[in-house]
Amino acid sequence: MINIGILGFGVVGSGVAEVIAMNLEKLEKHLEQPIRVKRILDVRDFDDSPFSDLLTKDADVFFNDTDISVVVETIGGVGIAYEFTSRALSQGKSVVTSNKELVATHGVELLQLAKDNHCAYFFEAAVGGGIPIIRPLHRCLAANRITKIAGIVNGTTNYILTQMELSDMDFSDALSRAQLKGYAESNPAADIEGIDAQRKIAILSSIAMNGIYINPDQIHTEGIKNVGVEDMTYARALGAKIKLLAIYKSYKEGSCEVIVAPHLVDRSEPISVADGVFNAIAVDGNALGPSMFYGKGAGKLATASAVVADVLDAALHQSKNAHIMSWTYPEHTVIKPFEDMHVIALVRLKGTVDLNLYRRLFPNQQIKPVVSAVPQETAFVVGQEGTLTEKMLSEATSQIKEFISLIRIYS
Amino acid sequence: MINIGILGFGVVGSGVAEVIAMNLEKLEKHLEQPIRVKRILDVRDFDDSPFSDLLTKDADVFFNDTDISVVVETIGGVGIAYEFTSRALSQGKSVVTSNKELVATHGVELLQLAKDNHCAYFFEAAVGGGIPIIRPLHRCLAANRITKIAGIVNGTTNYILTQMELSDMDFSDALSRAQLKGYAESNPAADIEGIDAQRKIAILSSIAMNGIYINPDQIHTEGIKNVGVEDMTYARALGAKIKLLAIYKSYKEGSCEVIVAPHLVDRSEPISVADGVFNAIAVDGNALGPSMFYGKGAGKLATASAVVADVLDAALHQSKNAHIMSWTYPEHTVIKPFEDMHVIALVRLKGTVDLNLYRRLFPNQQIKPVVSAVPQETAFVVGQEGTLTEKMLSEATSQIKEFISLIRIYS
Q1: Inter-CA distances, B177 with B157, B163, B170, B388, Å
Q2: Is A296 on the interface with B (CB under 8 A)?
Q3: Which of residues 52-91 of A touch B (CB under 8 A)?
Q4: Rounded Cα gap, residues A232 and A229, in angstroms
Q5: Which of residues 198-217 of B touch A (CB under 8 A)?
Q6: Is the Cβ pair A287, B309 closer than 8 Å?
Q7: Interface contact B30, partner A, CB < 8 A
Q8: List of residues 6+ apart from A201 with CB closer than 8 A
Q9: Is the pTM value of this prediction over 0.90?
Q10: How far is Cα B158 from Cα B162, in angstroms, rounded to an integer?
Q11: B288 contacts A305? CB cut-off 8 A
């Protein structure tokens, strides 16, 4: 009998209980033994939940239950979730989570604690919701050096951008619609400012770097607030979509480039199929070549599906000294400074401007005029061949008095 | 030290040796111990291979080497490959393979043999080449009932269809080009007749059925020989592409529909992004919802990447009684008979025909006229709502004297 304890009975936590009930027969066949949710810890009341008799508000009751061998942490945040996760792992109980903030912040310590206590710390659901990506990256692509990851990893911003594209809405109207539909929180800052995507690409980057921890705070991050209706007009004209991308590129041995920012993504790119709340993550390996994973990046049952898969894996590898990831802090900075990163961008200028006047600002660069998609504007693409740095680009545009804005181009 | 033996030093077998050499440092970090290819068994000579000193032609030398704990079988076919796989598993050595024919034919026995001998039989590379699909389906989606799989799983036919679509070639010209490029074999029958796809969907279906073995011979299979330039014209007119799809649908508890046939796939479907030799596999789970996996379905290093990932997994779970799949033969037929399967199809008729004349042949069906994409033809779509069976469709079309052909529509 596998006994599970759930910490936090919110959307994902209750989804975990539901998925286990819904697919119990299949799970027990997979495990070759019975499985049940034994206890749920939450400070709130859930009187009409079918699982209300499993609820306790007393953490000691939860942690002193020696039947529980796998703990699901779906509290979120880094406060009490960190404390409870540490407590469970210290007891030798495997912990499974969807908490990207905790993994991105304290992954090194928690993975070490799991190792020390011969149990597992799994977090498939922390990136891409229900899409298998952590295990495919760590296990299925283990024979590859990961050279690139480019992900649409935040459903809220992707929903907003898709609405802007399809309905010609501006950002704030699209945000309101997302809130109305329940796809954006009343305080949507972590999503629209790119913080959620930043945490997720930090996790994926740490795996791609073979366990060298990438600190999310060091990742240059831009949200989608400044994406306007005019940008969508250019996107359409160029056969592209605008997506908030979280990108990892291996740079040279032991270092990498990581960025979160809106990008023009050509419609021929496989990841461009992800519209609305869907996520897509492209991964390039030096043996595999390009690959892509697509699916629901959020939602109760989709996310719970990934959590429960981790529960099964943890249950099957109990006391077998399961091989789990191991992360370490880097000895020196491994992320290339933002200003040294290479960039290709679409630059928009006010009025009808002779681009020849600005060629001297971009030495050794091709400036490719783009037919303006907006009246009274001039636009061009600069940065072919990966020779233009962010620093060069921002210095040049700061000297152009007609400069409106720029948007990066994914390549 | 993990010692590997390779059976068959063809494209994939030599790719395995190459990938191990190329990414050795990463592999050893992942394993936390050294790994090497100890021996390679092949009857051919490979004098200029950097691995020639590892080659032996003597099977006894190979199998008596007690250092070898993981065997890679990249011989192909069901003859000697079956014999050698059985021999290795009986010795308690884990076997990893890309051999879809062997898995689809003898998977039940070989998985049982692995279980009996406390070792593993892994075949991630047998479907989707380098794309992680077997492990994601079996492990990452373990908490789901798999309701649908729809895959473009054969790179050769997808290359041919893409050429026909982009260059307006007919089938035989596109096949010649595929052979010239090395994407089709000189005897391309297994690919173009859909046999390769049939084996692959049989494997995926057996996993989706929780280990109830699906016999490839029971899967209705049509190849791509009859797809013509005119069909491509209709596809374009309908905003679709023609893809050879291998489809599994769970039908009711314990039974399923499985088919391999060319289908019209709407360009809004995520799998439609797979052009040329790329593969894409859509998977729907009852908790996850829709998902999709995309990448190189063939090729030396891509396929080897999946094989080596399996080698690592086998190495990490040695003598730990690793949890591996278990398949059993069904007690009764679980595949729905072809004639009872539901279908939506585009039907092409010679000349300008009054469709009202044929409505009585399709009782209770909507007949949706399609603007003919070819001069002197009439076309319509029939089969909305999943109420039309293959039997009803073939009986009806056999009574239409102007009938040219039909092509199924993926939905």
Answers
A1: 12, 9, 11, 38
A2: yes
A3: none
A4: 5
A5: 210-211
A6: no
A7: yes
A8: A149, A151, A153, A216, A219, A246, A247, A248, A258, A260
A9: yes
A10: 6
A11: yes
Alpha helices, H only, A223-298: 229-237
Nearest to B128 by CA among B79, B211, B199: B199
Distance CA B205, CA B213 (A): 8
- A309 CB within 8 Å of a chain B CB: yes
Segment 312-351 of chain A within 8 Å of chain B by CB: 312-313, 316-317, 320, 323
Q: Which residue's entry shows tokens 């039940």?
A: B108
pLDDT in tens, B295-351: 999 899 999 999 999 999 999 877 555 567 899 999 998 999 999 999 999 999 999
pLDDT of residue A325: 87
Do the Cβ atoms of B294 and A270 come within 8 Å?
A: yes
A vs B: CB pairs below 8 A: 182
Q: CA of B105, closest CA in chain A: separation in Å?
A: 23
Looking only at the bridges linking them, the beta strands covering B2-7 and B68-73 are: parallel
What string of pLDDT tens digits covers the 411 residues of chain A? 999 999 999 999 999 999 999 999 999 999 999 999 999 999 999 999 999 999 999 999 999 999 999 999 999 999 999 999 999 999 999 999 999 999 999 999 999 999 999 999 999 999 999 999 999 999 999 999 999 999 999 999 999 999 999 998 999 999 999 999 989 988 999 999 999 999 999 999 999 999 999 999 999 999 999 999 999 999 999 999 999 999 999 988 789 999 999 999 999 999 999 999 999 999 999 999 999 999 998 899 999 999 999 999 999 876 555 567 899 999 998 999 999 999 999 999 999 999 998 999 998 898 999 998 899 999 999 997 778 999 999 999 999 999 999 999 999
H or E element in which residue B68 lies: strand B68-73
- CB contact (8 A) between residue B305 and residue A135: no
Structure tokens at A401: 């008095």
Whether chain A has a CB inside 8 Å of the CB on B360: the answer is: no
A293 Cβ under 8 Å from any chain B Cβ: yes
Q: Where would I find the H helices in B268-403? A: 300-316, 390-398
Distance CA A95, CA A324 (A): 12
ipTM metric: 0.95
Q: In terms of Cα–Cα distance, which of B151, B176, B174, B180 is closest to B162?
A: B174
Burial of A217 (0-12, 13-18, 19+ CB in 10 A): exposed
Q: Does B131 touch chain A (CB under 8 A)?
A: yes
Give the best residue of A210, A305, A311, A326 to mutate against chain B (max B CB count within 10 A): A305
Phi, psi dihedral angles at A143 (to 5 degrees): -85, 5
From residue A222, how far is each of A131, A157, A192, A333, B331 by CA, in Å?
24, 12, 9, 21, 58
SS3 B78: coil
DSSP state of A253: T
Q: Tell me whether residues B289 and A130 touch, CB distance under 8 A.
A: yes
By C-alpha distance, the chain A residue nearest B27 is A143
Candidate from A210, A270, A290 with C-beta closest to B26: A210
- CB-based contact (8 Å) between B305 and chain A? yes
Residues of A annotated as catalytic (active site), given as ranges: 200
The residues of B annotated as belonging to the active site are 200
Distance CA B317, CA A278 (A): 35
Shortest distance, CA A35 to any CA of chain B (angstroms): 12
Measure the CA–CA gap between A29 and B108, rounded to whole angstroms.
Answer: 17
Strands B403-409 and B345-350 come out as antiparallel
Is A132's CB within 8 Å of B131's CB? Answer: no
Helices B11-22 and B24-31 cross at an angle (nearest 10°) of: 80
